[in-house]
Write a structure and sequence with these properties.
This protein is mainly β and 164 residues long. The protein has a single domain, classed as Jelly Rolls, CATH 2.60.120.620. Helix content is 7%, strand content 44%. An eight-stranded antiparallel beta sheet has the order 1-2-10-7-12-5-4-3, covered by helices on one side. A four-stranded antiparallel beta sheet has the order 6-11-8-9, with no helix packed on it.
Length: 164
């Protein structure tokens, strides 16, 4: 299980790169337990599965893109059909995000200018996705336009503000 982040930007001149994980854990993501599904975004509650997926997000690889102290939080999410996350900026506590598809999907995260003009999309195939840094150059969003659930691994990279 090995994380790879490309050096060439997925979108010219932006801090967005294609990312992939070789050999995802062999799990039936649709059979895991999920909660908080009211909005169409469901969170996996199976700690063993989450820990297996979290092991894939190799710190030494993330270090090639993040130079300041950070901590990661990994979750497994299920996005139901018609779930929508409008184009937005992330909050200041976040340095970046890695999203990896756990199954093949017809839809993926899209990237937008600050005026909400679409400028690109992350990969849609299993084991592939994107990494982006949190900044004010672009927004990101998502809508599941398919008739099936989307399953992703979400690795949020937070600023580590704890002084040592």
């Amino acid at each position: 299980m090995s994380l790879t982040i490309n050096n060439t930007p997925l979108i010219d001149n932006l801090n967005v790169w294609a990312a992939s994980i070789e050999a995802l854990p062999n799990l039936d993501y649709s059979s895991l337990n999920y909660s908080n599904c009211d909005s169409g975004k469901c969170e996996c509650t199976d700690e063993e599965a989450i820990n297996q997926v979290a092991e894939c997000f190799t710190k030494s690889v993330i270090d090639t893109k993040i130079s300041e102290p950070y901590k990661t939080v990994v979750s497994i999410l299920k996005n139901k059909p018609n779930f929508e996350l409008i184009p937005h900026f992330d909050n200041d506590a976040m340095l970046g995000v890695i999203i990896i598809n756990l199954v093949d999907s017809n839809t993926s995260t899209k990237f937008y200018t600050t005026a909400n003009v679409e400028i690109g999309q992350a990969p849609v195939s299993i084991s592939n996705g994107s990494m982006y840094l949190n900044n004010w150059d672009f927004k990101h969003g998502y809508i599941n336009t398919s008739s099936v659930d989307r399953y992703i691994a979400l690795c949020i990279i937070y600023k580590d503000t704890v002084e040592k």
